[in-house]
Write a structure and sequence with these properties.
Blueprint (H helix, E strand, L loop, with lengths): L4 H16 L1 E2 L9 H7 L10 E2 L2 E2 L5 H18 L3 E3 L5 H12 L5 E5 L15 H5 L1 E5 L10 H11 L3 E4 L10 H11 L2 E5 L4 H5 L12 E5 L10 E5 L19 H13 L5 H14 L2 H23 L3 E2 L8 E5 L7 H10 L2 E2 L1 E3 L13 E5 L1 H5 L4 H15 L5 H15 L10
Parallel strand pairs: 1-13, 5-6, 5-7, 7-8, 8-9
Antiparallel strand pairs: 2-3, 4-10, 9-10, 11-12, 12-15, 14-15
Helix pairs in contact: 2-10, 3-10, 4-9, 6-7, 11-14
The structure holds D-serine.
D-serine binds next to loops.
Length: 426
């Protein structure tokens, strides 16, 4: 077969784009080379429907070992009893978990997307809002912090089967114990989708959801710095509350229902090449090197928030505990859309984001979300955060000045030359 130079040229261009730019999308990161290498291997050829030791296909003796290592390592990271490493993404992990716990039409309660939540936590355009009856809590207008009173009130009034916590654009820690308390009152389950801060939770830099939430889902490609994918975890397995028994009359455990909901419930063959990459990333997370990395993520986020505040940018909740911040640009008279598009021209990449109580549409928005996991992987430290904020500010204070944008773009490029990305790839 002839080499597909069209596609490979485009792949080279994408690598160059990543090398030259300042990557501030809070959900992105740069994996190690070995994580990327694992995804381009012969494992992509293998069908392995089922689970290690219980597959529907022959020839699974090698992938069984790989998948079992991924399971064992992620269980070790989070000190938990159960892990499913097959979800193709965070959305798939949430879909499977909900399928295991809910019936169509059951009530769920999640953080409103427009307040920092996620599509899969009940948005009407997503399966979670179409299959289940979704209710929402928000954040407080004055503080930008989760409105726990509203959560409790909605929980008591609506009595959802599942309360979902976790967020995509929330910079503070979460009070999981308080959420569990009201869940126990109404006999609800609690799911924490820790996709964003998972890396910080792994190393104890934020409260752990595992003590208080029945289920925890995550992606593996954000602060965990692994391949694109999802996982489902439980601190402790427990008897399923639906009375389901196996043919011998034994009660099936919750882990069984979740496994069944992933495959065959919502997915077919697992992506064993990605699972191998997950196993490698989990091995990396268990090292001290990752501990230093994720500590630096938190320090960088705090340094960046301080630098923004000093330039009169309005950070929702006033700062950050984790790896990201949400900035309301209304005092600067710029929309999120305009900021994103203009910064993009200077190779500074981030996303427009609704701010709580936004008066603009999700396509325009009043804010931007800024995250530091990727630039921290590039090797940046606290002092570099000031440089990044200065570059952003130079664009946002001269938003229509094309000459200025071109100058900043050159400065971004020479700044990023100090932080090589994948030098082995040439
Ligand atoms: N998790 C979202 C993000 O935070 O970018 C994408 O679904």
């Amino acid at each position: 077969m002839q080499k597909d130079t069209v596609i490979f040229d485009l792949i080279d261009k994408e690598l160059e784009r990543q090398r030259h730019g300042i990557e501030l999308i809070a959900s992105e990161n740069f994996t190690s080379l070995q994580v990327m290498e694992a995804m381009g291997t012969s494992l992509t050829n293998k069908y392995a429907e089922g689970y290690p030791g219980k597959r529907y296909y022959g020839g699974c003796e090698i992938v069984d070992q790989i998948e079992q290592l991924a399971i064992d390592r992620v269980k070790q990271i989070f000190n938990c009893a159960y892990a499913n490493v097959q979800p193709h993404s965070g959305a798939q992990a949430n879909a499977a978990l909900m399928m295991a716990v809910l019936k169509a039409g059951d009530k769920i309660l999640g953080l409103d997307l427009s307040m920092g939540g996620h599509l899969t936590h009940g948005s009407p355009v997503n399966f979670s809002g179409k299959l289940y009856k979704a209710f929402f809590y928000g954040v407080k207008k004055d503080t930008g912090l989760i409105d726990y009173e509203m959560l409790e009130e909605k929980a008591r009034t609506e009595k959802p089967v599942l309360i979902i916590c976790g967020a995509s654009a929330y910079s503070r820690d979460i009070d999981y114990a308080r959420i569990r308390k009201v869940a126990d009152e109404i006999n609800a389950f609690v799911l924490c989708d820790m996709a964003h801060p998972a890396g910080l939770i792994a190393k104890g830099l934020l409260s752990s959801p595992f003590e208080h939430c029945h289920f925890v889902t995550s992606t593996t490609h954000k602060t965990l710095r692994g391949p694109r994918g999802g996982i489902i975890l439980m601190k402790t397995d427990f008897e399923n509350p639906f009375g389901l028994k196996d043919p011998k009359g034994n009660v099936r455990m919750m882990s069984h229902l979740i496994d069944m909901a992933v495959f065959p419930g919502t997915q077919g063959g697992p992506l064993e090449h990605v699972i191998a990459a997950k196993a490698i990333a989990f091995g990396e997370i268990l090292t001290d090197e990752f501990t230093s990395y994720i500590n630096q993520v938190q320090l960088n986020a705090q340094a960046m928030a301080k630098a923004f505040v000093a330039k009169d940018y309005h950070i929702i909740s006033g700062g950050t505990d984790n790896h990201l911040m949400l900035i309301d640009l209304r005092n600067k008279n710029i929309t999120g859309k305009k900021a994103q598009e203009t910064l993009d021209k200077a190779h500074i990449t981030l996303n427009k984001n609704a701010v709580p109580f936004d008066d603009k549409s999700p396509f325009v928005t009043s804010g931007i979300r800024v995250g530091v996991p990727a630039i921290t992987t590039r090797g940046m430290k606290e002092a570099d955060m000031q440089t990044v904020v200065d570059l952003i500010d130079r664009i946002l204070t001269n938003i229509d000045d094309e000459k200025n944008i071109a100058t900043v773009k050159e400065d971004v490029k020479s700044f990023m030359n100090q932080f090589p990305l994948y030098p082995e790839l040439k």
